[in-house]
Design a protein that fits this description.
- This protein is mainly alpha-helical.
- It is built from 18 helices and four strands.
- A two-stranded antiparallel sheet has the order 1-2. A two-stranded antiparallel ribbon has the order 3-4.
Length: 353
Protein backbone atom coordinates (compact mmCIF):
# COMPACT_ATOMS: atom_id res chain seq x y z
CA UNK A 1 0.00 0.00 0.00
CA UNK A 2 2.86 2.36 0.87
CA UNK A 3 4.59 1.56 -2.41
CA UNK A 4 1.34 2.20 -4.33
CA UNK A 5 0.87 5.53 -2.56
CA UNK A 6 4.44 6.53 -3.36
CA UNK A 7 4.02 5.66 -7.01
CA UNK A 8 0.83 7.71 -7.21
CA UNK A 9 2.56 10.72 -5.70
CA UNK A 10 5.37 10.38 -8.20
CA UNK A 11 2.86 10.24 -11.03
CA UNK A 12 1.17 13.42 -9.80
CA UNK A 13 -2.05 11.68 -8.79
CA UNK A 14 -2.16 13.01 -5.24
CA UNK A 15 -3.76 16.43 -4.84
CA UNK A 16 -5.17 18.62 -2.07
CA UNK A 17 -4.10 16.11 0.57
CA UNK A 18 -6.20 13.16 -0.60
CA UNK A 19 -5.96 10.42 -3.18
CA UNK A 20 -7.62 11.79 -6.31
CA UNK A 21 -6.83 8.83 -8.60
CA UNK A 22 -10.41 7.43 -8.36
CA UNK A 23 -11.81 10.85 -9.23
CA UNK A 24 -9.56 11.13 -12.26
CA UNK A 25 -10.52 7.67 -13.50
CA UNK A 26 -14.26 8.32 -13.07
CA UNK A 27 -14.39 11.79 -14.63
CA UNK A 28 -17.07 11.41 -17.34
CA UNK A 29 -16.24 14.20 -19.80
CA UNK A 30 -13.69 13.37 -22.51
CA UNK A 31 -11.25 15.77 -24.12
CA UNK A 32 -12.64 17.27 -27.35
CA UNK A 33 -10.91 19.01 -30.20
CA UNK A 34 -12.07 22.51 -31.14
CA UNK A 35 -13.98 21.10 -34.11
CA UNK A 36 -15.70 18.57 -31.86
CA UNK A 37 -16.62 21.33 -29.42
CA UNK A 38 -18.21 23.28 -32.25
CA UNK A 39 -20.06 20.19 -33.49
CA UNK A 40 -21.42 19.66 -29.97
CA UNK A 41 -22.83 23.19 -29.91
CA UNK A 42 -24.46 22.68 -33.31
CA UNK A 43 -26.00 19.38 -32.16
CA UNK A 44 -27.60 21.24 -29.27
CA UNK A 45 -29.22 23.83 -31.53
CA UNK A 46 -26.76 26.70 -31.63
CA UNK A 47 -26.50 28.42 -35.01
CA UNK A 48 -22.97 28.97 -36.38
CA UNK A 49 -22.79 31.49 -39.22
CA UNK A 50 -19.00 31.42 -39.63
CA UNK A 51 -17.38 28.16 -38.52
CA UNK A 52 -13.82 29.33 -39.12
CA UNK A 53 -14.34 32.42 -37.00
CA UNK A 54 -16.09 30.42 -34.29
CA UNK A 55 -13.15 27.99 -34.14
CA UNK A 56 -10.80 30.94 -33.76
CA UNK A 57 -12.78 32.20 -30.75
CA UNK A 58 -12.76 28.73 -29.18
CA UNK A 59 -8.99 28.56 -29.60
CA UNK A 60 -8.34 32.04 -28.17
CA UNK A 61 -11.02 32.33 -25.47
CA UNK A 62 -11.91 28.75 -24.67
CA UNK A 63 -15.14 26.75 -24.60
CA UNK A 64 -15.48 26.84 -20.83
CA UNK A 65 -15.13 30.62 -20.50
CA UNK A 66 -17.60 31.25 -23.32
CA UNK A 67 -20.05 28.76 -21.84
CA UNK A 68 -20.77 31.24 -19.03
CA UNK A 69 -22.15 33.61 -21.66
CA UNK A 70 -24.24 31.14 -23.62
CA UNK A 71 -25.63 29.47 -20.50
CA UNK A 72 -28.62 31.89 -20.44
CA UNK A 73 -29.39 30.84 -24.04
CA UNK A 74 -30.27 27.30 -22.91
CA UNK A 75 -33.85 26.04 -22.76
CA UNK A 76 -35.24 25.78 -19.23
CA UNK A 77 -37.92 23.33 -18.16
CA UNK A 78 -40.08 23.41 -15.02
CA UNK A 79 -38.98 21.23 -12.15
CA UNK A 80 -40.85 20.71 -8.89
CA UNK A 81 -39.22 19.91 -5.57
CA UNK A 82 -40.28 19.96 -1.92
CA UNK A 83 -39.57 23.13 0.02
CA UNK A 84 -39.31 22.70 3.79
CA UNK A 85 -38.02 26.11 4.85
CA UNK A 86 -38.94 27.58 8.22
CA UNK A 87 -39.93 24.26 9.78
CA UNK A 88 -43.25 24.29 7.91
CA UNK A 89 -44.68 21.24 6.14
CA UNK A 90 -43.03 20.46 2.85
CA UNK A 91 -44.80 21.78 -0.23
CA UNK A 92 -44.04 21.61 -3.93
CA UNK A 93 -42.13 24.56 -5.34
CA UNK A 94 -41.46 25.00 -9.02
CA UNK A 95 -38.07 25.99 -10.39
CA UNK A 96 -36.73 25.97 -13.91
CA UNK A 97 -33.64 23.95 -14.72
CA UNK A 98 -31.42 24.39 -17.77
CA UNK A 99 -31.25 21.67 -20.39
CA UNK A 100 -28.35 21.15 -22.79
CA UNK A 101 -30.36 22.46 -25.76
CA UNK A 102 -30.39 26.08 -26.88
CA UNK A 103 -33.35 28.35 -27.46
CA UNK A 104 -34.43 28.94 -31.05
CA UNK A 105 -32.37 31.72 -32.62
CA UNK A 106 -29.35 31.37 -30.31
CA UNK A 107 -26.12 31.93 -32.22
CA UNK A 108 -22.44 31.60 -31.40
CA UNK A 109 -21.98 35.25 -32.31
CA UNK A 110 -24.57 36.20 -29.66
CA UNK A 111 -22.34 34.64 -27.00
CA UNK A 112 -19.25 36.40 -28.37
CA UNK A 113 -21.06 39.75 -28.44
CA UNK A 114 -22.07 39.28 -24.80
CA UNK A 115 -18.50 38.29 -23.90
CA UNK A 116 -17.08 41.42 -25.56
CA UNK A 117 -19.70 43.59 -23.85
CA UNK A 118 -18.73 42.11 -20.49
CA UNK A 119 -15.01 42.57 -21.15
CA UNK A 120 -15.49 46.28 -21.88
CA UNK A 121 -17.72 46.59 -18.81
CA UNK A 122 -14.94 45.18 -16.59
CA UNK A 123 -12.36 47.54 -18.08
CA UNK A 124 -14.62 50.53 -17.48
CA UNK A 125 -15.23 49.41 -13.90
CA UNK A 126 -11.49 49.13 -13.26
CA UNK A 127 -10.97 52.62 -14.67
CA UNK A 128 -13.34 54.10 -12.09
CA UNK A 129 -12.11 51.93 -9.22
CA UNK A 130 -8.51 53.03 -9.78
CA UNK A 131 -9.43 56.68 -9.29
CA UNK A 132 -11.64 55.93 -6.28
CA UNK A 133 -8.95 53.80 -4.64
CA UNK A 134 -6.27 56.48 -5.02
CA UNK A 135 -8.54 59.19 -3.58
CA UNK A 136 -9.50 57.04 -0.61
CA UNK A 137 -5.85 56.25 0.14
CA UNK A 138 -5.34 59.99 0.55
CA UNK A 139 -8.45 60.32 2.74
CA UNK A 140 -7.42 57.50 5.10
CA UNK A 141 -3.73 58.46 5.26
CA UNK A 142 -4.55 62.14 5.84
CA UNK A 143 -7.08 61.35 8.59
CA UNK A 144 -4.86 58.91 10.50
CA UNK A 145 -1.63 60.80 9.79
CA UNK A 146 -3.01 63.90 11.49
CA UNK A 147 -2.61 62.05 14.80
CA UNK A 148 0.60 60.14 14.13
CA UNK A 149 2.72 59.33 11.10
CA UNK A 150 2.66 55.70 12.24
CA UNK A 151 -0.92 55.55 13.52
CA UNK A 152 -1.71 52.59 11.29
CA UNK A 153 0.64 50.42 13.43
CA UNK A 154 -1.03 51.27 16.74
CA UNK A 155 -4.03 49.07 17.65
CA UNK A 156 -5.28 51.56 20.25
CA UNK A 157 -5.99 54.01 17.41
CA UNK A 158 -8.76 51.72 16.09
CA UNK A 159 -12.05 50.49 17.45
CA UNK A 160 -11.83 47.58 19.88
CA UNK A 161 -13.26 44.91 17.58
CA UNK A 162 -10.44 45.63 15.17
CA UNK A 163 -7.59 46.45 17.52
CA UNK A 164 -8.24 44.42 20.69
CA UNK A 165 -10.61 41.47 20.19
CA UNK A 166 -8.80 38.19 19.53
CA UNK A 167 -9.96 35.79 16.84
CA UNK A 168 -11.06 32.44 18.34
CA UNK A 169 -9.11 30.43 15.76
CA UNK A 170 -5.88 32.38 15.29
CA UNK A 171 -5.58 34.18 18.63
CA UNK A 172 -4.77 37.35 16.70
CA UNK A 173 -6.59 40.64 16.38
CA UNK A 174 -7.84 41.80 12.99
CA UNK A 175 -5.34 44.65 13.25
CA UNK A 176 -2.48 42.19 13.72
CA UNK A 177 -3.61 40.29 10.64
CA UNK A 178 -3.85 43.55 8.70
CA UNK A 179 -0.33 44.61 9.74
CA UNK A 180 1.01 41.24 8.55
CA UNK A 181 -0.57 41.79 5.13
CA UNK A 182 0.76 45.35 5.05
CA UNK A 183 4.27 44.11 5.87
CA UNK A 184 4.10 41.63 2.97
CA UNK A 185 3.16 44.43 0.58
CA UNK A 186 6.08 46.54 1.77
CA UNK A 187 8.53 43.62 1.52
CA UNK A 188 7.40 42.71 -2.02
CA UNK A 189 7.37 46.27 -3.34
CA UNK A 190 9.99 47.19 -5.95
CA UNK A 191 8.93 50.84 -6.07
CA UNK A 192 11.71 53.43 -6.02
CA UNK A 193 9.91 55.51 -3.38
CA UNK A 194 9.81 52.53 -1.00
CA UNK A 195 13.51 51.84 -1.48
CA UNK A 196 14.33 55.55 -1.05
CA UNK A 197 12.38 55.88 2.20
CA UNK A 198 13.82 52.67 3.60
CA UNK A 199 17.34 53.88 2.87
CA UNK A 200 16.93 57.46 4.10
CA UNK A 201 14.49 57.08 6.99
CA UNK A 202 14.34 53.35 7.69
CA UNK A 203 11.26 51.38 8.69
CA UNK A 204 8.42 51.76 9.41
CA UNK A 205 7.23 54.01 6.59
CA UNK A 206 5.09 57.05 7.34
CA UNK A 207 1.45 56.40 6.52
CA UNK A 208 1.41 58.86 3.61
CA UNK A 209 4.19 56.77 2.04
CA UNK A 210 2.98 53.34 3.14
CA UNK A 211 -0.54 53.85 1.76
CA UNK A 212 0.83 53.88 -1.78
CA UNK A 213 1.48 50.12 -1.65
CA UNK A 214 -2.01 49.22 -0.35
CA UNK A 215 -4.42 47.42 -2.63
CA UNK A 216 -8.16 48.06 -2.45
CA UNK A 217 -8.71 45.21 0.01
CA UNK A 218 -6.00 46.44 2.39
CA UNK A 219 -7.41 49.96 2.19
CA UNK A 220 -11.03 48.94 2.81
CA UNK A 221 -10.06 46.69 5.72
CA UNK A 222 -8.17 49.49 7.48
CA UNK A 223 -11.02 51.93 6.92
CA UNK A 224 -13.38 49.35 8.42
CA UNK A 225 -11.23 49.34 11.58
CA UNK A 226 -11.12 53.10 12.07
CA UNK A 227 -13.14 54.76 14.85
CA UNK A 228 -16.67 55.53 13.70
CA UNK A 229 -16.29 59.29 14.03
CA UNK A 230 -13.34 59.20 11.62
CA UNK A 231 -15.21 56.86 9.27
CA UNK A 232 -18.12 59.29 9.30
CA UNK A 233 -15.85 62.24 8.60
CA UNK A 234 -14.58 60.55 5.45
CA UNK A 235 -17.93 59.18 4.29
CA UNK A 236 -19.62 62.57 4.65
CA UNK A 237 -17.26 63.90 1.99
CA UNK A 238 -19.05 61.49 -0.36
CA UNK A 239 -22.58 62.34 0.73
CA UNK A 240 -23.01 59.35 3.07
CA UNK A 241 -23.48 60.24 6.74
CA UNK A 242 -23.02 56.71 8.11
CA UNK A 243 -19.42 55.51 7.91
CA UNK A 244 -20.43 51.89 8.56
CA UNK A 245 -22.61 51.94 5.45
CA UNK A 246 -19.70 53.47 3.56
CA UNK A 247 -17.44 50.66 4.84
CA UNK A 248 -19.82 48.15 3.25
CA UNK A 249 -19.56 50.09 -0.01
CA UNK A 250 -15.79 49.75 0.05
CA UNK A 251 -15.97 45.99 0.77
CA UNK A 252 -18.37 45.53 -2.14
CA UNK A 253 -16.24 47.64 -4.48
CA UNK A 254 -13.23 45.54 -3.50
CA UNK A 255 -15.26 42.46 -4.46
CA UNK A 256 -16.05 44.12 -7.80
CA UNK A 257 -12.39 44.99 -8.28
CA UNK A 258 -11.31 41.38 -7.68
CA UNK A 259 -13.85 40.08 -10.21
CA UNK A 260 -12.62 42.51 -12.84
CA UNK A 261 -8.90 42.11 -12.09
CA UNK A 262 -9.14 38.33 -12.45
CA UNK A 263 -11.02 38.60 -15.77
CA UNK A 264 -14.05 36.82 -14.32
CA UNK A 265 -17.55 37.14 -15.74
CA UNK A 266 -19.31 40.23 -14.40
CA UNK A 267 -22.44 39.98 -16.52
CA UNK A 268 -25.35 38.23 -14.77
CA UNK A 269 -23.16 37.48 -11.74
CA UNK A 270 -24.51 37.27 -8.23
CA UNK A 271 -22.67 39.76 -5.99
CA UNK A 272 -21.99 37.95 -2.71
CA UNK A 273 -20.78 40.91 -0.62
CA UNK A 274 -23.71 43.25 -1.13
CA UNK A 275 -23.48 46.86 0.10
CA UNK A 276 -25.79 48.40 2.65
CA UNK A 277 -27.83 51.36 1.49
CA UNK A 278 -28.42 54.72 3.17
CA UNK A 279 -32.03 55.96 3.38
CA UNK A 280 -33.52 57.33 0.17
CA UNK A 281 -34.04 60.72 1.87
CA UNK A 282 -30.25 60.98 2.01
CA UNK A 283 -29.53 59.66 -1.49
CA UNK A 284 -32.60 59.66 -3.70
CA UNK A 285 -31.21 57.18 -6.24
CA UNK A 286 -31.15 54.28 -3.76
CA UNK A 287 -34.97 54.15 -3.80
CA UNK A 288 -34.89 52.08 -7.00
CA UNK A 289 -32.93 49.36 -5.18
CA UNK A 290 -34.61 49.24 -1.76
CA UNK A 291 -37.32 46.73 -2.67
CA UNK A 292 -35.51 45.12 -5.60
CA UNK A 293 -33.59 42.08 -4.35
CA UNK A 294 -32.41 41.16 -7.84
CA UNK A 295 -30.95 44.62 -8.47
CA UNK A 296 -29.15 44.62 -5.10
CA UNK A 297 -27.50 41.31 -6.04
CA UNK A 298 -26.12 42.45 -9.40
CA UNK A 299 -23.23 44.64 -10.50
CA UNK A 300 -25.28 47.64 -11.66
CA UNK A 301 -25.69 48.82 -8.07
CA UNK A 302 -21.92 48.74 -7.57
CA UNK A 303 -21.41 50.63 -10.83
CA UNK A 304 -23.93 53.20 -9.60
CA UNK A 305 -22.00 53.52 -6.34
CA UNK A 306 -18.77 53.95 -8.31
CA UNK A 307 -20.46 56.65 -10.40
CA UNK A 308 -21.63 58.42 -7.24
CA UNK A 309 -18.13 58.39 -5.73
CA UNK A 310 -16.43 59.42 -8.95
CA UNK A 311 -18.63 62.50 -9.24
CA UNK A 312 -17.03 63.60 -5.96
CA UNK A 313 -13.48 62.46 -6.75
CA UNK A 314 -13.46 63.97 -10.23
CA UNK A 315 -16.60 65.93 -11.17
CA UNK A 316 -15.22 66.57 -14.68
CA UNK A 317 -14.69 62.90 -15.45
CA UNK A 318 -16.34 61.57 -18.61
CA UNK A 319 -16.58 58.09 -17.06
CA UNK A 320 -20.30 58.29 -16.21
CA UNK A 321 -21.10 59.21 -19.81
CA UNK A 322 -18.84 56.49 -21.20
CA UNK A 323 -20.37 53.82 -19.00
CA UNK A 324 -23.91 54.94 -19.84
CA UNK A 325 -23.09 54.79 -23.56
CA UNK A 326 -21.67 51.30 -23.13
CA UNK A 327 -24.74 50.04 -21.27
CA UNK A 328 -27.01 51.49 -23.95
CA UNK A 329 -24.96 49.59 -26.54
CA UNK A 330 -25.92 46.25 -24.99
CA UNK A 331 -26.06 43.54 -27.70
CA UNK A 332 -29.36 42.92 -29.43
CA UNK A 333 -30.44 39.79 -27.56
CA UNK A 334 -34.14 40.44 -27.15
CA UNK A 335 -34.91 37.31 -29.18
CA UNK A 336 -33.37 35.34 -26.30
CA UNK A 337 -35.17 37.33 -23.60
CA UNK A 338 -32.03 39.13 -22.47
CA UNK A 339 -31.55 42.78 -21.60
CA UNK A 340 -29.86 44.99 -19.02
CA UNK A 341 -31.85 43.41 -16.20
CA UNK A 342 -29.08 40.81 -16.28
CA UNK A 343 -26.77 43.38 -14.65
CA UNK A 344 -29.55 44.55 -12.35
CA UNK A 345 -30.39 47.83 -14.07
CA UNK A 346 -33.81 48.96 -12.76
CA UNK A 347 -36.46 50.37 -15.08
CA UNK A 348 -35.70 53.94 -16.08
CA UNK A 349 -32.08 53.77 -14.93
CA UNK A 350 -31.05 56.18 -17.69
CA UNK A 351 -33.08 59.03 -16.16
CA UNK A 352 -31.37 58.72 -12.77
CA UNK A 353 -27.87 58.01 -14.03
Amino acid sequence: ACMTAMMRRRRGLRCFGFDCAPLLMNYPKPWKSYSEQLDLLVSRGMAISDSERALDYLERIGYYRLSGYWFPFRIRLPFCFLDSTGGKPKKPREERIATDDFKAGATFQDAVDLYVFDKKLRLLALDALERIEIALRVDVAHTLGRHDAFAYLKPERFHSEFGAVLDDKTGLTRHHTWVSKHAQLIARSKEDFVRHNKTKYGLPLAIWVACEVWDFGTLSTLYNGMPEDEQNAISRQYGVSNGRIFASWLRSLNHLRNICAHHSRLWNRNIIDQPKLPPAKELAWVAAFEANEHARARCFLLLKIACHLLRVVNPRSTWPDRLKAHLLAFPSLGHLGMNLKGVGAPDGWERDW
